[in-house]
Design brief:
single chain, alpha/beta, about 230 residues, binds S-adenosylmethionine, Rossmann fold
């Protein structure tokens, strides 16, 4: 039976939700904390009044934003996978209240949010799994305020010299470790495949331009295995 890609992605994240955080920190050697911090520092610089974190998963970017931004700034965090959102809500119970932070269902392909309603949108390790990336970018462009900015944290293509070591790790080591812990090696093989086939930062910038974004800049982290794209609505 035909199942849209979004449905398969949602099902896959449902299956690994309980172990997601632990594996994230383990498989990235703890670097994911630094990558998210770099993202949040960029957001802080534009002094947003309203923030939307898309594909929030278990909420680590949303919590990091909440800690760094003024308590008067509301943060809305959305994902289409309820078990991932449930992990975020569990963490929220032990998170000190530092201002409004709401986790709710939302599909990036079809956001049920008003036009021009946020001045910063973040998405970390989410766009790689989109059914239609340009459509997702168009939705983000629509809900961004006219002076707003989009911040994408995502895997990218590493420097040439680092590729052999990196792809051996991605193809063989990562799925084996993750498979032992989650009993779902296929999910991590799929995720590793999406990292390997993900566009370069130049191609991703082109897709952002296609969706209407302008003034696109990039910052490479950890041998360019991860890149932050920042883009303005106008
Ligand atoms: C790798 S996790 C990243 C979670 C979190 N942002 C982080 O940095 O840890 C990817 C998340 O994207 C979500 N996702 C993928 N496609 C989506 C879509 N079309 N709409 C909403 N969420 C989506 C998945 O459910 C999953 O929780």
């Amino acid at each position: 039976m035909y199942q849209p890609i979004g449905h398969k992605v949602e099902k896959m994240f449902s299956g690994i939700a309980l172990k997601y955080d632990f594996l994230n920190h383990l498989l990235s050697f703890g670097l994911d904390f630094l990558w998210r911090k770099a993202l949040v520092n960029k957001v802080k610089k534009i002094k947003p009044r309203t923030v939307l974190d898309l594909a929030t998963g278990s909420g680590d970017v949303a919590f990091s934003l909440r800690k760094s931004l003024d308590s008067s700034i509301p943060i809305l965090a959305q994902d289409f996978c309820e078990p991932m959102l449930e992990q975020a809500r569990i963490k929220q119970r032990s998170f000190p209240q530092q201002g409004p932070l709401k986790f709710e269902f939302g599909d990036c392909m079809d956001l049920t949010l008003e036009d021009t309603s946020f001045d910063a949108i973040t998405i970390s390790f989410g766009v790689r799994n989109f059914e239609n990336r340009v459509q997702g970018f168009r939705e983000m462009h629509r809900v961004l305020d006219n002076d707003g900015s989009l911040f994408i944290l995502e895997f990218s293509q590493p420097y040439q010299w680092f590729k052999p070591i990196y792809f051996i790790y991605l193809k063989y080591i990562l799925p084996t470790i993750a498979g032992l812990i989650t009993k779902d090696k296929e999910a991590y093989k799929y995720l590793a495949g999406t990292i390997e086939s993900f566009p370069t930062k130049e191609s991703l910038s082109e897709q952002l331009r296609e969706a209407g974004f302008q003034k696109i800049s990039t910052k490479s982290l950890t041998f360019s295995t991860v890149v932050i794209h920042q883009a303005s609505k106008h």
